[in-house]
Amino acid sequence: MKKITIAIDGFSSTGKSTIAKQLAKALGYVYVDTGAMYRAVTLYAARHGYVSHEKEDYQALLEALANIELKFEYNDDLGFAEMYLNGENVEQEIRTLAVSKLVSKVAAIKEVRSKLVEMQKEMGKEKGIVMDGRDIGSVVFPEAEFKVFMTASPETRAHRRYKELLDKGEIVTYLEVLQNVRSRDYLDSNRKESPLLLSKDAIEFDNSDMGLKEQFERMYNYALRVIEKQ
Ligand code: DC
């Protein structure tokens, strides 16, 4: 069967990665979480003092961009690829609230986006890929055969993320997480470079009141119909 490109965009904590992983597994496709790439660059920038709550030194970050090596390595036990930053597994650290609070600043930088978009295009050039992010259907793969735009209410998303962070042992409050969700929605949708947009050819998918099983079945059937038409 002909392979297609599946682009999944949407707000933070809408469950993009959950559905993307499930689709990739069911179709035998590669899954790429582009948020992990922006998070890894942010972690690098934070560790080197190029970005913090108080200040940003974008010039220093841009000069260091060539030293940032990102790689995904598949973990058989987990069933997905983990993020490596200059050879170090940073999968856990990039998911902390500390990184979430800084990532929108770094993701708004044009040169960071160009570097990561180029890598993403390369990863998807053979098709057979499910990629999730904010600009996948609009910038990375405008020609993708199947584009999805995921939404859910900020409160639903904050509850999901809050629970995830607590399960991982982070000490956070629900309000802090809700504030982060709202602020990232705003920054991701209003930035100058590749803002998060609902493209005309994407299907909008609100999963506020939907279970994981129903969500997967709907998406999978939809994807199969698109593939059959190729
Ligand atoms: O999907 P996520 O929450 O892990 O993404 C982290 C941040 O990275 C998000 O706030 C916006 C940014 N991002 C982006 O600008 N473009 C992408 N393709 C993916 C993520």
Unreliable spans are none
- Major sheet: 5 strands, parallel
Rg:
17 Å
Helix coverage percent: 40-55%
Tally of discrete structural domains: 1
CATH homology group: P-loop containing nucleotide triphosphate hydrolases
Summarize this structure as a short list of keywords or feature phrases.
230 residues, Rossmann fold, five-stranded parallel β-sheet, three-stranded antiparallel β-sheet, 9 helices, 8 strands, 48% helix, binds 2'-deoxycytidine-5'-monophosphate
Describe the structure in your own words.
- The protein is α/β, with parallel strands linked by helices and 230 residues long.
- The chain has a single domain, classed as Rossmann fold (3-Layer(aba) Sandwich).
- The chain is 48% helix and 17% strand.
- The protein is built from nine helices and eight strands.
- The protein starts with a strand and ends with a helix.
- It binds 2'-deoxycytidine-5'-monophosphate.
- The site of 2'-deoxycytidine-5'-monophosphate has 14 residues, from α2, α4 and α8.
